Automatic annotation (TrEMBL):
GO annotation, biological process: superoxide metabolic process
InterPro entries from the UniProt entry: SOD-like_Cu/Zn_dom_sf (IPR036423), SOD_Cu/Zn_/chaperone (IPR024134), SOD_Cu_Zn_dom (IPR001424)
Provenance organism: Marvinbryantia formatexigens DSM 14469
Lineage: Bacteria, Bacillati, Bacillota, Clostridia, Lachnospirales
GO MF, one example: copper ion binding
Protein name: Copper/zinc superoxide dismutase
Length: 179
């Protein structure tokens, strides 16, 4: 990112709690997202549901995702990281082998390698089947991804393997709509 975005935390004049967290929580609480996706699993994974909300922020997007019904890795050493991306395809349809094949590959308008695709996200942390994640990306604005798809994978993203981080089967999908 070049230059300083108004409002974004800067270390040049850092003096403690910036107030941005409070502003962001307020935005989520009271603001209307510009775009959203309702995410569902299919077939064996039809217990998965959730929503991904996209708010315009600092020239990019604040992403807020809440997902339930994820396959849970239980036990004292349980909890999984699950690959999470925006894909370039425009439909959550697919085949018997790949339930969401039409979501296609990662959203990648600039032709970069993984994990430098615009649609590459931090993985979801599954807690007894539940995940809640809020993060910022300046790789796209909400309106630039309307019509694309959000995908959750069965495995963690290794952030190395091409073209998709070896994150396994697509287990849930949602088409991004204008709010
Ligand atoms: Zn990618």
């Amino acid at each position: 990112m070049s230059g300083k975005m108004a409002g974004i935390l800067s270390c040049d004049n850092f003096s403690g709690i910036s107030g941005n967290m409070e502003m962001l929580l307020h935005m989520i609480q009271n603001g209307k997202p510009e775009a959203y996706a309702l995410v569902y699993g299919k077939a064996r994974m039809d217990c998965i549901c959730g929503n991904v909300l996209l708010y315009p922020l600092w020239g990019g997007t604040l992403v807020a995702a809440e997902i339930a019904g994820l396959p849970a890795k239980e036990g004292a050493c349980g909890g999984s990281f699950l690959g999470f991306h925006i894909h370039g395809g425009e439909a959550c349809s697919g085949t018997a082998d790949d339930a969401f094949a039409d979501a296609d590959g990662h959203f990648n308008p600039a032709g970069c390698e993984h994990p430098f695709h615009a649609g590459d996200f931090p993985p979801l942390l599954e807690n007894h089947g539940y995940a809640l994640s809020v993060f910022y990306t300046d790789r796209f604005t909400p309106e630039e991804v309307v019509g694309r798809t959000v995908i959750i994978h069965a495995m963690a993203d290794d952030f190395r393997t091409q073209p998709s981080g070896n994150s396994g089967m697509k287990i849930a999908c949602g088409k991004i709509m204008s709010a």
